[in-house]
Amino acid sequence: QLRRLAQLAINELERVRAAPEVAGEAAVRRALLLLRLDRPDEALAALDESDAAAGDDAVRYFSALFRGRALERLARPVDAATAYERAATIVRGAQTPAVALASLWQRHDRPAEALSWARRAMTTPAGAADPWWLYWRGDLRHASARLAVLRATTP
C-alpha cells in the first residue's frame, strides 16, 4: 500500500516537472521518494534534473544531501562525501551533512575524518538553520516572503 502511494506521488511529481518554477523542487522530492523505494539510480537521475533546474539554496541543499544518500546506497563513499560536503557548503552550519559525513567515515574506518565532522555537528553556531528540518513542511520556507507580499497588497 505504501509503495503504491509513493509511486502515485512520484507520478504526480513527474507531471509537474514541466513547470519551471517548481521543476527543481519536484525533482528533488521525487528523488527522496525513489531513494525510499530503494531506487538510487533513478534518484540520481532526478537529482540531475533538479540541479539543472537550479532552484533556490534549499533545493540545491536537498539535492546535494540526497545525492550523498544515493551514492552511499550505490557503495560510492568518496562521491557521497563530496555530495555531503557540497551540502555543507551550500548551507553553512547545517548539521545534517556533518552528521552524515561523521557516520559515513565512521563506517568506512576513517576515524579522524569521522571525529572532525562529529565535532562540527556538535558545534553548530547558535541560530544556524538547517533546511532539512523544514523539508516535510513543503514550501513553508517561503511563508515570510509570501506574507510580506500579502501585507503589501491593498484590498
What does this structure look like?
This protein has 155 residues and is mostly helical. The protein is globular, with a radius of gyration of 17 Å. 72% of the residues lie in helices and 0% in strands. The mean pLDDT is 87. α2 (20-36) runs antiparallel to α3, α2 (20-36) runs parallel beside α4 and α3 (40-53) packs antiparallel against α4. It contains eight helices and no strands.
Global outline: globular
Distance between the termini: 46 Å
Output the radius of gyration.
17 Å
Question: SSE order, as H and E?
Answer: HHHHHHHH
Largest sheet: none
Number of helices: 8
Uncertain spans: none
Q: Proportion of β residues? A: under 5%
- Which percent range fits the helix content? over 70%
Instruction: Look at the structure and give the mean pLDDT.
Output: 87
